[in-house]
Amino acid sequence: MTAANLLSDRRAILLLGLLAALAAAPLAAGDYALSILITVLLQAYLGMAWNVMMGFAGQFSLGHALYVGLGAYAGGALFAHFGTPPLVGALAGMVVSAVAGSIIGTLGFRFKVMGVYFALLTIAFAEFTRVLFDHWNWVGASSGLFLPVSHSVNDDFWNLRGSATMFYYVILGMAAAAFLFSRALLGRRIGYYWQAIREDQDAADALGIDVFRAKMVAVIISASMTSLGGLFIAFYNNNLYPESIFSMHRSIELMLGTIIGGIGTLFGPILGAVALTALGEALTVIGAHIGIDGVKQIAYGVCLMVILAFRPGGLWPWLRHRLRLDGGRR
């Protein structure tokens, strides 16, 4: 057996072990622990969605909360007003988010808006949409949109009404699917195109790669995936407010885990979500005891500076080397 085969087997065993542990977690976890696990998986899923655009294709978006909000409101409003099943609402949210991403991408890529200026463009669209929804009465405006809650004791997967355990398995399935989908994308031609564009766009263009088309595909896929995360948030929380769902804070939190874990890697968003959620929960408890506001935000900033200074590639590349999993896929 070759070293490559041994490495592949070790990765498969670790991945299957992690999945088995997560699948069995509700059997031992209490309500609080289960809510933490749901938060970790949600952050991991959203981080993987953002990673497609930034980590794979190198297009920096600071307004990804736009797609979270569009997915949340599309599914939530259709369900609240017409009783439309979440699956249909998910498709509507993906279409709306894909269109919004296409508009931003077309404006940015056709007019050569790159780097920090493209990031500012994404923020502008997210803020414009937040203000629009804040004054749109059909979705509750600033008063918020509230989803009807079922009082049935049985889990209703079709309408996403049920227990925390049901929501846990839904987000676990979404995160696992996002991981496998991201892995498949990296192994296809479009994945290699994205990595070439990320490293040197001019060189990729000189090699004959259709840079505009490749970047648009990345934006549309990332936006559509992110909108599904927004739909989950809507049905899990049962309420939506423009100020929170479209907020800049959500965009930063969404990408921070991936930056800490490792941009452009497969396991980075997962590891970053675990580290960030654990840190956030610990700081919430500490902040409540010492009575100082903003401890979490300050610690997030310090943590990010430490990672950028000592592990600029993120935690996963370092951990991967320590576990002797280097080489091949990430």
Commentary on this structure:
By secondary structure, the chain is mainly alpha-helical. The protein has one domain (3-322): ABC transporter involved in vitamin B12 uptake, BtuC (Orthogonal Bundle), CATH 1.10.3470. 75% of the residues lie in helices and 1% in strands. The chain has 14 helices and two strands; from the N terminus they run αααααβααααβααααα. Strands 1-2 form a two-stranded antiparallel ribbon. α2 runs parallel beside α6, α3 crosses α9 and α7 crosses α9. It is globular, with a radius of gyration of 20 Å.
Features of the shown structure:
single chain; 330 residues; ABC transporter involved in vitamin B12 uptake, BtuC
Explain the layout of strands and helices:
Elements: H1 3-28, H2 31-56, H3 65-82, H4 86-110, H5 116-134, E1 145-146, H6 164-187, H7 189-199, H8 201-206, H9 211-237, E2 239-240, H10 242-245, H11 248-261, H12 268-290, H13 295-310, H14 315-322
Antiparallel strand pairs: 1-2
> What count of domains describes the coordinates?
1
Shape: globular
* CATH topology value: ABC transporter involved in vitamin B12 uptake, BtuC
Structural class: mainly alpha
Helicity, in percent?
A: over 70%
What's the β-strand tally? 2
The SSE order reads HHHHHEHHHHEHHHHH
List the strand order in the largest sheet: 1-2
Under the CATH scheme, which architecture would be assigned? Orthogonal Bundle
**Weakly predicted, low-confidence segments:** none
Our measurement of the CA-to-CA distance between the termini, rounded to an integer number of angstroms, reads 21 Å
Spatial extent as radius of gyration = 20 Å
- Sheet-strand content, in percent, reads under 5%
How many strands, which pairing sense, and closed or not: the largest β-sheet?
A: 2 strands, antiparallel
Query: Helix count?
Result: 14
Average residue pLDDT: 90
CATH class: Mainly Alpha
